[in-house]
């Protein structure tokens, strides 16, 4: 069918209901369930939005002549890659970057995997063919994906095979002629209200033999029998868009995934029992770089939103004479410009990988993903500091429209804003920086790519610093010679 519209998304979720649990109850219809329905409608709205910006977000599939999402592109040239970047920026603007796991994130991963299909091999199970066919299926039907890549680890120092209960983590319970049977749990699926679940390989630090039954990658419909999604409590409390302008629209939800003897046919399996392929999959195929590139695009939009929000608060309250305000706004501007520079550098040095797929340069993206977990909480703090007590003193829409409305309009003015302008602005700032939705965003950005300490450790171990060391050594040698 090609690129979908919003009503297609809603109809598919209704007709193929996944087993979603929320607040202790199995959800019968995610399109109407309180706490979930608004986020589902926003997801559907994103599919309408792509048609409203079809020149950027859609392209024609030459094999079918259908319009398809550009985020599924496998770029073979620099121009094709840059068009993907424009589409990713446009898509992120729909939610101002607040939908961190919008479908384009995993679309980039699956496109990288398909472009590097030969990496997965063509042995008895034809895993590479499976990846290529699955990508074509996703693209031609414009399906949304959630994913999971972490094993539960009660003991953080051990892999799944060496836990006190080695059956907690998702593992192959049975291997059959027609596929695999999976049992156990996985963490953490964001946007579980999707069409399909992609199970990425989890990090496997134990030996290859004991890790074999945990070594797999596959994709299945979210409505597969035996598959459960246990959701956290929603941060959409059912209030209006006036009171919760972000939480009432962009709650994408997070869930733990339970596999109760879930059957996975071989044609949906992308790797199995090969620990080396599992551990190298994201890097060798370029999937990690493609996902990180999408994230930088998202973070540019998100930072620009915070810069605009902070600037409106400063202007509305007449705070532009204070130097500490100048410093704060400058800090957010520097962050935005830095992210844009990372994106541009990754594009300028993009190259075709060993499989012919144009892939963004990794180092600028790696720097960005290590930096943003520190930038975002600080920018939220700046919003809190500018708004101060005004963020927790804002009345609701019901108050403004109620019997005290006239008094509220009189007493809630700002220097350059009347109350009807100030209240919505500050409620938006509150939802971005103070509310449960805003707090979840901070936590989410802190750990988007994993533990920041482990990421920094990887930089320490993997990045070549020898050229810098050699320059210092030469200076020391020169200084020593000059002192003789």
Automatic annotation (TrEMBL):
Question: What are the binding positions for FAD in this chain?
Answer: 147-149, 190
- Superkingdom as given in the UniProt entry: Bacteria
The answer to whether the entry has keyword Flavoprotein is yes
What are the GO BP annotations of this UniProt entry? phenylacetate catabolic process
Tell me yes or no: is Oxidoreductase among this UniProt entry's keywords: yes
Please tell me the species this chain comes from.
Trinickia terrae
InterPro entries in alphabetical order: Acyl-CoA_Oxase/DH_mid-dom_sf (IPR046373), AcylCo_DH-like_C (IPR036250), AcylCoA_DH/oxidase_NM_dom_sf (IPR009100), HpaB/PvcC/4-BUDH (IPR004925), HpaB/PvcC/4-BUDH_C (IPR024719), HpaB/PvcC/4-BUDH_N (IPR024674), HpaB_Deino-type (IPR012687)
Location of the HpaB/PvcC/4-BUDH N-terminal domain:
8-270
Pfam families linked to this entry: HpaB, HpaB_N
Listed Gene3D superfamilies: 4-hydroxybutyryl-coa dehydratase, domain 1, Butyryl-CoA Dehydrogenase, subunit A, domain 2, Butyryl-CoA Dehydrogenase, subunit A, domain 3
How is this protein named in the record? 4-hydroxyphenylacetate 3-monooxygenase, oxygenase component
Which of the seven top EC classes does this enzyme belong to? oxidoreductase
E.C. no: 1.14.14.9
Gene Ontology MF term list: 4-hydroxyphenylacetate 3-monooxygenase activity; flavin adenine dinucleotide binding; oxidoreductase activity, acting on the CH-CH group of donors
Tell me which residues make up the HpaB/PvcC/4-BUDH C-terminal domain. 278-477
Q: Which UniProt keywords apply?
A: FAD, Flavoprotein, Monooxygenase, Oxidoreductase
């Amino acid at each position: 069918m090609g690129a979908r519209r919003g009503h297609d998304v809603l109809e598919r979720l209704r007709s193929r209901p996944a087993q979603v649990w929320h607040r202790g109850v199995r959800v019968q219809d995610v399109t109407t369930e309180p706490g979930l329905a608004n986020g589902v409608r926003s997801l559907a709205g994103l599919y309408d939005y792509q048609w409203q910006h079809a020149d950027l977000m859609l392209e024609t599939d030459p094999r079918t002549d259908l319009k398809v999402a550009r985020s599924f592109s496998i770029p073979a040239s620099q121009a094709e890659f840059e068009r993907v970047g424009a589409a990713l920026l446009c898509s992120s603007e729909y939610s101002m970057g607040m939908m961190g796991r919008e479908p384009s994130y995993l679309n980039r991963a699956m496109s990288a995997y398909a472009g590097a299909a030969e990496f997965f091999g063509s042995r008895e199970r034809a895993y590479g063919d499976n990846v290529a066919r699955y990508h074509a299926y996703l693209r031609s039907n414009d399906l949304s994906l959630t994913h999971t890549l972490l094993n539960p680890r009660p003991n953080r120092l051990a892999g799944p095979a060496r836990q006190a209960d080695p059956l907690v983590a998702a593992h192959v319970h049975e291997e059959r002629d027609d596929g695999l049977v999976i049992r156990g749990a996985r963490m953490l699926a964001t946007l579980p209200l999707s069409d399909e679940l992609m199970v990425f390989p989890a990090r496997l630090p134990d030996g290859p033999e004991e890790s074999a039954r945990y070594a797999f990658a596959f994709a299945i419909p979210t409505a597969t029998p035996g598959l459960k999604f246990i959701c956290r409590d929603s941060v959409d409390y059912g209030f209006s868009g006036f009171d919760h302008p972000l939480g009432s629209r962009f709650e994408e939800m997070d869930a733990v995934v339970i596999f109760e003897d879930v059957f996975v046919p071989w044609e949906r399996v992308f790797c199995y029992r090969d620990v080396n392929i599992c551990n190298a999959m994201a890097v060798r195929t370029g999937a990690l770089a493609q996902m990180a590139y999408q994230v930088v695009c998202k973070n540019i939009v998100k930072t620009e939103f915070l810069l605009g929000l902070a600037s409106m608060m400063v202007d509305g309250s007449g705070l532009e004479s204070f130097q500490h305000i100048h410093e704060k706004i400058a800090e957010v501007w520097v962050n935005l410009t830095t992210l844009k520079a990372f994106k541009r550098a990754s594009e300028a040095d993009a190259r075709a990988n060993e499989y012919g797929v144009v892939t963004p340069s990794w180092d600028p993206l790696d720097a960005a993903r290590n930096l943003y977990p520190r930038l975002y909480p600080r920018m939220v703090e700046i919003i809190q500091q500018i708004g101060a007590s005004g963020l927790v003193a804002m009345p609701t829409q019901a108050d403004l429209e109620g019997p005290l409305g006239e008094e509220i309009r009189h007493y809630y003015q700002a220097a350059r804003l009347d109350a009807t302008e100030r209240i919505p602005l500050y409620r938006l700032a509150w939802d971005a920086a103070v509310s449960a939705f805003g707090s979840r965003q901070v936590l989410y950005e802190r750990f988007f790519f994993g533990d920041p300490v482990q990421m920094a450790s990887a930089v320490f171990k993997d990045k070549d610093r020898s050229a810098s060391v050699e320059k210092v050594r030469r200076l020391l040698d020169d200084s020593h010679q000059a002192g003789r």
